[in-house]
Amino acid sequence: MSRRRVLGLALIGAVVIGCFVTVRLDSPPREPSVSNPTPAAGVGSARSTGMAASAPSAGSARDAAVGFATASQNWLYLSDSEIDQAVLAIATPGTGPHLAAQTVADMSAARQSLRAASGPAWWLVRPLAAKVDSFEPPTARVEVWVVTVLCAPGVAAPQAHWETVTADLAWAVAAARWEVASVTENPGPTPQTSNQEPAWAADAFDSALVGFQRIGSEA
């Protein structure tokens, strides 16, 4: 998608990638304790990201934007064709093809990078707060503050990327749901680590999380 949320975390040597997520890797960089998690309600597929609603409202627009801003959390387990279908399902007809093509391309690069990981890869995408900037049916604009945590031994040092995702939404009457018309991302607001705690090495990060399951992916 045009929103390259984590492409702000460019793959540079052992530091790493970013991408508006996705992909079920044929040889996955093993997500801790969960190989192919079944998304919890409201977290997974394109049609469960908060886009659908009985009628346009500020609340449903907010939910749709939050779902879109964090969809990459579970799109990590989709194939290219599934990504394409998922993006087309939540974007406007005019925007969908371009966003789908861009997302598939970004995911291909991410897939190749993560395959080189020597241990479990963590990819956590979480919404922290949201604001409805405007609500004038059939359109709405919503800002979502998001943090993405990434760690892939041998590929990506443990890191967090903070950004504000602004989604312009359009209400599709026939489908009775919000669709994404455009998206922009801006860095931050970014907090400082408490007490300036140094970042952990990938191996230590991985060891500390052995046995943990990513919330939102329980079967």
Q: How would you briefly describe this protein structure?
A:
With 219 residues, the chain is α+β, with helices and mostly antiparallel strands.
Characterization of the model:
By secondary structure, the protein is α+β, with helices and mostly antiparallel strands. The protein has a domain at 46-193: Nuclear Transport Factor 2, Chain: A, CATH 3.10.450. The chain has 5 helices and 4 strands; from the N terminus they run H-H-H-H-E-E-E-E-H. The two termini are 27 Å apart. The relative contact order is 0.22. Residues 1-48 have low confidence and may be disordered.
Topology:
Blueprint: H1 58-69, H2 72-75, H3 80-90, H4 96-114, E1 122-136, E2 139-152, E3 156-172, E4 177-187, H5 202-208
Antiparallel strand pairs: 1-2, 2-3, 3-4
